[in-house]
Write a structure and sequence with these properties.
The mean pLDDT is 86. It contains 19 helices and four strands. Helix 3 packs parallel to helix 11, helix 5 runs antiparallel to helix 6 and helix 13 packs antiparallel against helix 14. 75% of the residues lie in helices and 2% in strands.
């Protein structure tokens, strides 16, 4: 290991030590009760709520997946995805945050999303709770796997070591950290990590743009690649049979520009719909100490997201200008941020900047693991199997669940050629279609009943799999991101089934009206 690599390792070790310190600091408070462990006692301030929500949401996908898409295919796919995400972020904070904070407290002081759904419809048989908990386990296990892929790629690229070994070490670190600190530690460290992430992005894009000869030079280079710098076109890398981009005289080869039409744009913008169903974001709405502070949180979150997404996309563009043939597969292209950091910054600073990737990964994976554990321990174990379970028993089950989910995530992440963007897009669609429509209808349509809620949740979740595996491979007009048709299908089921079955009880409707009339 050379001197530069040692300095990078030192920088990242210092960062990891700080993160562990935060976990230890909050450990005692987190372990006082399951409510503190899973929701922090509804004590988050506006800055922590906003920044931790976005950091836990974006994950290593922001620093690796999105720049990788821009490096590989050009502007359109990455930019339209970013536009959809920015719009979804703003609308979620604007429409959902205050009413969910209010309603979750009214509905039996719900501290998890399955709790909220079940309490909202006054379930006696916990069908909604069980279905939502199972979907959370499935999709968050996939999500956690994407974070482990990020860890494996980061450390194996940096230190030239085994991907699998580094991925497993990353999993162990995240697992230990999550077990120690719970939601408060997660939220506090996510706040710090959100700052690290945006600083890392801005530093790299600035240094890389200067190294490439300035902004105009980067744009001119992008325009020389067919479809690369277009909103309505897409680059087509020329590949050999193994999926490696062909290179001639040091220059990567591209075919004719592909079309990026209306259906594709709408499909890509649909990423924004996912926000309405993201448990890691919705929990921050539920956990803020005062509903009135959500307006400030919305502004903070929106600004952070806009800066981060724009810079992440441009990193891919400038990376292609500086190192046009260095990353020759779709999977390798997701290392463009690492490549720029190692080559353009002094080792010690590069270590801190690349800690941004680690920050993004930790901030997401601890959220995913914690929410998945709460769905099993609180909603299935206590909600169904042992209703008189003590807090100590719930905490024990949650930690066993953390171990099991981490083990399954490791198995999913074993393939080092996994594309982070692809893994995340599937899990994102799963949550968006399973929970998003139900969250909106639960908060804004009084006529929604339990039967409609069950139909919508099941229909949305199943349609994600059906569209992804059966319909989308047909190609052409059917090649639509599975989130959009599944989201619309779920909405239709909620409306139709609710209207053809009995309306909610007077008690449920009165509770809805009380929440609606109450102003922050």
């Amino acid at each position: 290991m050379d001197t530069g690599t040692i300095q990078i390792l030192i920088s990242m070790s210092v960062y990891m030590a700080v993160v562990i310190g935060i976990g230890v600091y909050f450990a005692k408070r987190a372990n006082q009760s399951s409510e503190n462990y899973f929701l922090g006692g509804r004590s988050l301030g506006p800055w922590v709520a906003a920044m931790s929500a976005e950091a836990s949401d974006m994950s290593g996908w922001l620093l690796m997946g999105l720049p990788g898409v821009a490096y590989w295919l050009g502007l359109a796919d990455a930019a339209w995805t970013a536009i959809g995400l920015a719009a979804g972020t703003y609308l979620n904070w604007l429409m959902v945050s205050k009413r969910l904070r209010r309603y979750s407290e009214k509905a039996g002081n719900a501290i998890t999303l399955p709790d909220f759904f079940s309490n909202r419809f006054h379930e006696k048989k916990k069908v909604l709770m069980s279905i939502s908990a199972i979907f959370i386990l499935v999709f968050f296990t996939v999500y956690a796997a994407s974070c482990l892929v990020t860890c494996g790629k980061l450390f194996s690229t940096l230190f030239g070591t085994s991907y699998v070994t580094m991925m497993i070490l990353g999993a162990v670190f995240v697992l230990v950290y999550t077990i120690i600190g719970g939601f408060l530690a997660e939220s506090a460290s996510d706040f710090m990590q959100a700052i690290v992430m945006v600083i890392a992005l801005v530093v790299i894009v600035t240094v890389a743009t200067i190294a490439a000869g300035g902004f105009s030079s980067v744009i001119e280079n992008a325009k020389t690649i067919p479809g690369f710098f277009e909103f309505f076109g897409i680059a087509s890398p020329s590949l050999d049979p193994s999926g490696v981009q062909l290179v001639e005289n040091g220059k990567p080869l591209f075919g004719a520009a592909g079309s990026y039409g209306f259906i594709t744009i709408v499909s890509t913008l649909a990423w924004g719909l996912g926000y309405f169903g993201m448990p890691q974001v919705l929990l921050r709405f539920m956990a803020i100490r005062d509903e009135k502070e959500l307006t400030s949180s919305r502004r903070i979150a929106t600004v952070w997201v806009l800066i981060s997404l724009v810079v992440a996309v441009f990193i891919g563009i400038v990376g292609r200008a500086l190192y046009p043939a260095a990353l020759s597969t779709a999977a390798e292209s997701e290392s463009v941020f690492i490549l720029l950091s190692k080559n353009l910054l002094p080792p010690l600073l590069a270590g801190f900047v690349m800690a941004g990737i680690l920050a993004a990964t930790i901030s997401s994976s601890d959220s995913y693991l914690l929410i998945a554990a709460s769905s099993l321990s609180k909603n299935i174990y206590q909600g169904l199997l042992k209703k008189d379970a003590s807090d100590k028993q719930i905490m024990t089950v949650s930690r066993i669940t953390l171990l099991a989910i981490t083990a399954v995530s490791i198995l999913i992440a074993l393939d080092e050629n996994s594309v982070i963007f692809t893994i995340v897009s599937f899990a994102w669609a799963g949550f968006g279609a399973t929970f998003g429509p139900l969250v909106l209808f639960s908060l804004f349509w009084k006529r929604t009943n339990r039967t409609g809620a069950i139909a919508g949740m099941l229909g949305g979740g199943i349609m994600v799999f059906f569209w992804k595996l059966v319909i989308r491979p047909l190609g052409g007009a059917w090649n639509i991101y599975e989130l959009l048709p599944a989201f619309l299908f779920s909405c239709a089921l909620i409306i139709i089934v609710s209207l053809v079955t009995a309306p909610p009880s007077d008690e449920i409707q009165a509770e809805f009206d009380d929440v609606k009339m109450k102003k922050a």
